[in-house]
Design brief:
The structure is a single chain. By secondary structure, this protein is of the alpha+beta class. 41% of the residues lie in helices and 21% in strands. It is built from eight helices and eight strands; from the N terminus they run βββααβαβαβααββαα. The strands form two sheets. Strands 4-3-2-1-5 form a five-stranded mixed β-sheet. β1 and β2 form a beta hairpin. The two termini are 28 Å apart.
Length: 205
Amino acid sequence: MELKRPVIVRLNFIRKGNFEVPGVEVNVKFNERYGTFRISEQFIKMAQMEVELIAIRKLKDLAFKKPVYEYFNIFTDQLVSIDHWPIVTEEEYKLWKDKKDLALYYNSYSIQNVVLKILNEEHRLSPNVSLSVKNFASLMKTTVGILAPEILALQQKELVERRGSGNTVDNSDWIKITDKGIEQIRGYTGYSGIKLSESYKLLVE
């Protein structure tokens, strides 16, 4: 499976647009790259979505496809493709609106790799440390809903240890990396596709 580091999308500002049609400009950042979406008023009306939701859905659509150009128009011609844009969960959208900052992960494999790498780094800094799932989701700049199935999968492989009840991952559960997880991170070259320093730096800054 393909392994990619997370893309951190950040909402910088929204303002009235100054371009060929009435609309708004949404300035965003993809890791170290900047871009501005120019969204027409007509598109907003026809899509019946809030500007922030249009922006985050398009960010998810572009995140792993290509660099963001300086300007990207979202005019009515884009309406034909809107149904193909990735879905944003209510939990993700709330995080995006509240924090203006969200990590996007390429697939389950990438999420699990980053989970292990971040837990390993936390363990290195504070041996045997356990983190609440809520705080860990915040560190990963994502939601508990996104992380829950990956935590369960890693737990089943005995790569992480979780203190919680049953097969439901809750905010109040506690997790830490196991010795087996540490061995896998240190010894399995398949995990080298995402450098720890890159992922950790992106997420904690």
